[in-house]
């Protein structure tokens, strides 16, 4: 492929530079060759007189001699007498006509004033013009110049046409992605612009498609399988767009299509694509995610339009629930908000705009009808100078996408450790702080070492930190999680599975891993109605946890009714607004002090 491309360029360069080089040669050797054919020496001498300064002149006494010259060297123009012995001028013209190799040489026939018939016959046999004897010097010179000028014009037109043809053939090859046969991104954007402006009555849509974890697929299988996937998808897209749309292979695992809106049915498109991928019988699911931009602003460039489709795609990529999204105002606002967050996060962390609140976790003694905090969860806040307090639900997902979460998490953990050391300095009985550990930390072990360093730095014990992880850590790296959990257990940390039951892998984790506590988000469980059924599920979770020797923490407990119900179900550890909202560190210290 590399070699082919470079040879295209070599050819293009040859056309451009070779052309110039040839012109250069012409201008250096600027005397053209003129063949004067006449049996009368005097006639030849007159013509020679006219042209010897300008041309390199060869003389021939008859047609036969002329042909010998023509065959043996390049001739630019022939002045040809018609009446000659051995071989006539007319015979020379006929010979030239039947030998296309020489047919391009312009011939001016020289005739006597009264020989109109011969002039006509000569012109019919391809002569470019005629000169009448006796010669008028200015007419002779003009005619020769005209004929040569015309000839050059024709040649340059022919050359231009050949050059255009070659370039357009090469352009076509450059516009096509070699592996899939679809348009390259550049050609796609260009042709999309032409299509949109050429069909103002049609509303078009851009669809951006990307394969989830394509890199992994390439690593698990081989490049050939990867190529087969891409080619299969390409031929599907090609069929989908037909003659009214365009399809492009943008980069390794991304495609784009342009379709008139009336042809767009995303459910059908994804279903068809899934079926195509399924037919390849690769044991790992190959899933495409898509984003759609329905053109509502024709003043955007096609590249900006494709960008919007891409943004819509990123909003659903790797989600379990949705495979495609449309670009709309809500998404636009969300994406802009994400951009602002991403731009400001670094200075915010450096300028101390992040801080941690602590939400107490209570133990309820049903018989004694008492309750007391036994731990607190550290929850991050962003004190933004203009926007006020920003909630983690707004910034954590952005940080998880761009990787900043690892730094912010470490900041929160250090705050928690510092806070624990303050509890000790105040002479309080230390209560554990539960910290959130984003799944992004589970790609390597380094966060465990970091936690151990923090404990040493603040002179703390592992039991003082409860670690909250979510099911996402299991989905992303199950083997890695097993190793890390083993290490955390052996170090003496307590591990909580947060948001238990919020996705399908919960039971898998309980089967495979050692977890100390489950956190069940009551608010979320009851959010969608079906209270009777949720009661049964909650009861089953609490019973199961007991049998597996795990504690259950109910979080999001907002009302006395919920609190009562949970206790009758056998859950006595609670977190929620009913007990306490998240407190700033001083308020939490005050709460702990009041217990003494
Ligand atoms: P989460 O870990 O499930 O934390 C519980 C969330 O529920 C907290 O929201 C808490 O304020 C809220 N909450 C507790 N009780 C109630 C209640 O009775 N009613 C209502 N409506 N809400 C209650 P918050 O602080 O906004 O945090 C949201 C999420 O952000 C957390 O959910 C957690 O996933 C994430 N988060 C917060 N801090 C951190 C952090 O330091 N690191 C990481 N990775 N994630 C964090
Ligand atoms: Ca949590
Ligand atoms: Ca939670």
TrEMBL record:
List of residues that carry 4-aspartylphosphate: 81
User: Phosphoprotein: present as a keyword of the record?
Assistant: yes
Q: Where is the EAL domain?
A: 338-596
Family matches, as SMART domains:
EAL, GGDEF, REC
What domain of life is recorded for the organism?
Answer: Bacteria
Q: Which keywords does this chain's UniProt record carry?
A: Phosphoprotein
Database matches in InterPro entries: CheY-like_superfamily (IPR011006), Cyclic-di-GMP_PDE-like (IPR050706), EAL_dom (IPR001633), EAL_sf (IPR035919), GGDEF_dom (IPR000160), Nucleotide_cyclase (IPR029787), Rev_trsase/Diguanyl_cyclase (IPR043128), Sig_transdc_resp-reg_receiver (IPR001789)
Q: Which biological process annotations from GO are given for this protein?
A: phosphorelay signal transduction system
Domain Response regulatory, by residue range, is 33-148
PANTHER family in alphabetical order? CYCLIC DI-GMP PHOSPHODIESTERASE PDED-RELATED (PTHR33121:SF79), CYCLIC DI-GMP PHOSPHODIESTERASE PDEF (PTHR33121)
Query: What protein does this entry describe?
Result: EAL domain-containing protein
Q: Which organism is it from?
A: Anaerovibrio slackiae
């Amino acid at each position: 492929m590399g070699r082919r491309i470079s040879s295209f360029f070599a050819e293009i360069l040859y056309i451009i530079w070779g052309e110039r080089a040839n012109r250069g040669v012409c201008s250096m050797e600027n005397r053209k060759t003129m063949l004067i054919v006449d049996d009368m020496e005097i006639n030849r001498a007159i013509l020679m007189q006219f042209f010897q300064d300008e041309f390199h002149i060869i003389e021939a006494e008859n047609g036969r001699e002329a042909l010998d010259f023509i065959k043996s060297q390049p001739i630019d123009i022939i002045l040809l007498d018609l009446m000659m012995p051995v071989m006539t001028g007319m015979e020379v013209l006929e010979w030239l006509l039947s030998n296309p190799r020489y047919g391009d040489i312009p011939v001016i026939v020289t005739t006597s004033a009264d020989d109109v018939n011969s002039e006509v016959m000569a012109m019919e046999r391809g002569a470019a013009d005629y000169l009448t004897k006796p010669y008028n010097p200015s007419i002779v010179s003009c005619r020769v110049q005209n004929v040569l000028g015309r000839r050059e014009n024709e040649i340059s037109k022919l050359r231009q046409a050949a050059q255009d043809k070659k370039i357009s053939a090469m352009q076509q090859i450059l516009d096509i992605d070699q592996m899939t046969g679809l348009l390259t991104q550049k050609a796609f954007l260009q042709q999309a612009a032409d299509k949109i402006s050429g069909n103002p009555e049609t509303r078009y849509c851009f669809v951006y498609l990307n394969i989830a974890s394509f890199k992994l697929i390439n690593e698990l299988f081989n490049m050939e399988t990867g190529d087969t996937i891409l080619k299969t998808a390409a031929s599907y897209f090609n069929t989908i767009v037909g003659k009214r749309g365009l399809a492009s292979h943008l980069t390794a695992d991304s495609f784009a299509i342009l379709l008139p809106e009336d042809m767009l049915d995303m459910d059908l498109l994804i279903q068809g694509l899934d079926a195509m991928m399924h037919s390849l019988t690769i044991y790992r699911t190959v899933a495409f995610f898509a984003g759609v931009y329905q053109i509502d602003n024709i003043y955007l460039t096609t590249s900006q339009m494709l960008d919007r489709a891409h943004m819509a795609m990123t909003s659903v990529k790797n989600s379990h629930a949705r495979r495609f999204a449309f670009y709309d105002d809500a998404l636009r606002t969300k994406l802009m908000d994400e951009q602002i967050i991403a731009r400001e996060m670094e200075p915010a962390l450096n300028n101390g705009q992040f801080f941690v609140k602590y939400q107490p976790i209570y133990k309820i003694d049903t018989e004694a009808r008492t309750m007391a905090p036994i731990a607190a969860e550290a929850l991050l806040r962003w004190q933004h100078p203009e926007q006020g307090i920003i909630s983690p639900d707004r910034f954590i997902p952005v940080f998880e996408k761009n990787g900043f979460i690892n730094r912010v998490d470490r900041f929160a953990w250090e705050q928690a450790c510092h806070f624990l050391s303050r509890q000790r300095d105040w002479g309080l009985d230390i209560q554990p702080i539960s910290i959130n550990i984003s799944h992004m930390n589970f790609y390597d072990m380094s966060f465990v070492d970091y936690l151990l360093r923090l404990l040493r730095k603040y002179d703390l014990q592992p039991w003082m930190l409860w670690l909250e992880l979510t099911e996402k850590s299991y989905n992303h790296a199950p083997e890695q999680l097993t190793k890390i959990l083993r290490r955390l257990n052996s170090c003496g940390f307590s591990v909580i599975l947060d948001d238990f039951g919020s996705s399908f892998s919960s039971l898998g984790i309980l089967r495979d891993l050692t977890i100390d506590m489950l956190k069940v988000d009551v608010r979320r469980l009851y959010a969608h109605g079906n209270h009777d059924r949720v009661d049964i599920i909650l009861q089953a979770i609490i019973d199961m946890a007991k049998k597996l020797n795990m504690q259950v923490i109910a979080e999001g407990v907002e009302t006395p009714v919920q609190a009562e119900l949970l206790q009758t179900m056998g859950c006595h550890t609670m977190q929620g607004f009913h007990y306490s909202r998240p407190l700033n560190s001083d308020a939490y210290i005050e709460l702990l002090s009041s217990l003494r």
